[in-house]
Write a structure and sequence with these properties.
The complex is a heterodimer of chains A (about 80) and B (about 230).
Chain A: H1 11-51, H2 55-64
Chain B: H1 15-46, H2 59-88, E1 95-102, E2 105-110, E3 116-120, E4 142-145, E5 150-156, E6 161-165, E7 170-174, E8 180-184, E9 190-195, E10 208-214, H3 216-229
Classes of the chains: A mainly alpha (about 80), B alpha+beta (about 230).
Organism (chain B): Betta splendens
Keywords (chain B): Copper, Electron transport, Magnesium, Membrane, Metal-binding, Mitochondrion, Mitochondrion inner membrane, Respiratory chain, Translocase, Transmembrane, Transmembrane helix, Transport
GO molecular function (chain B): copper ion binding; cytochrome-c oxidase activity; oxidoreductase activity
Chain lengths: ~80, ~230
């Protein structure tokens, strides 16, 4: 009774055929994750902030809080 | 402004700084991709017992690992150059302000108005009033109108200084005998802080910059009051 001949060649190549595409997929996925969770989110945050931004209201709130030196609160 | 244990950039207050933030995110995506790929590949190479002892030439691999980095560098360079040239644009500024670095304070000259010049010294720690920021607040602030393109010209009187305001995305060297120019536009009103960014002597850390952005009508009122008090 003879044993089947073991695989003797191409072991690294077989492993590489699995590892390399996994590397591209996982690293690409990580990059896409960063792009959407950080990059696109930041763009959305800025766009939403300025969409309904009222500079006058913001200025008046800061003015009344005494933030500015050049403009005093309206009571003074 | 900056706060303790801060990791990222300050919130952007000018369109250029917003572009810089998005470019930084873009560059970080590429850095994350490359770093994770290299880390993964090295780990896989270290934990295997398999080797290939007959590796010679490998034209395809050489082509790939030459062309791919070139492509990645192009993906970084093109947006970078775009912002570089955007920062150089000066779109019909309404106002020119000259910031002059001295040892160890800044002075501001509004030459569009007859004699509107003033010095800006850091408020010493012992003279701070409640609500003021240590090492950041100054006695006189550079006041600018909001949403207006402004030309800022920076120079120095003695040694090298650098006029920097992170939230506006500006850092400009103040060189004696040279006028450097940049465009400034604040997208919203407020008070924005910066510090001298070129070593200039004993009190280099104690000559901060404060930019106050207010609506145009209030700015005009401020210029009148400054000229009347001069």
């Amino acid at each position: 009774m003879s044993l089947p001949k073991p695989m003797m060649r191409g072991l690294l190549a077989k492993r590489t055929r699995i590892v390399l595409p996994m590397a591209f997929v996982s690293c690409g996925g990580l990059a896409l994750f960063y792009k959407y969770v950080v990059g696109e989110r930041r763009k959305r945050t800025y766009a939403e902030f300025y969409k309904n931004y009222d500079a006058t209201k913001d200025f008046n709130a800061m003015r009344e809080a005494g933030v500015f030196d050049s403009v005093q609160p309206s009571g003074k | 402004m900056a706060y303790p244990s801060m990791l990222g950039f300050q919130d952007a207050t000018s369109p250029i700084m917003e572009e810089l933030l998005h470019f930084h995110d873009h560059a970080m995506i590429i850095v994350t991709l490359i770093s994770s790929f290299v880390f993964y590949t090295i780990t896989m190479m270290v934990i295997t017992k398999l080797t290939y002892k007959s590796m010679l030439d490998s034209q395809e691999m050489e082509m790939v690992w030459t062309a791919l980095p070139a492509l990645i560098l192009t993906m970084v360079a093109l947006p970078s150059l775009r912002i570089l040239y955007l920062m150089d644009e000066l779109n019909f500024p309404n106002l020119t302000v000259k910031a002059v670095g001295h040892q160890w304070y800044w002075s501001y000259e509004y030459t569009d108005f007859e004699q509107l010049n003033f010095d800006s010294y850091m408020i010493p720690t012992q003279d701070l009033t409640p609500g003021q920021f240590r090492l950041l607040d100054t006695d006189n602030r550079m006041v600018v109108p909001v949403n207006s393109p402004i030309r800022v010209m920076v120079t120095a009187d003695d040694v090298l200084h650098s006029w920097a305001t992170p939230s506006l995305g500006i850092k400009l060297d103040a060189v004696p005998g040279r006028l450097n120019q940049t465009a400034l536009m604040t997208s919203r009103p407020g008070v924005f802080y910066g510090q001298c960014s070129e070593i200039c002597g004993a009190n280099h850390s104690f000559m901060p910059i404060v930019v106050e952005s207010i609506p145009l009508d209030h700015f005009e009122y401020w210029t009148h009051s400054m000229l009347n008090n001069a």
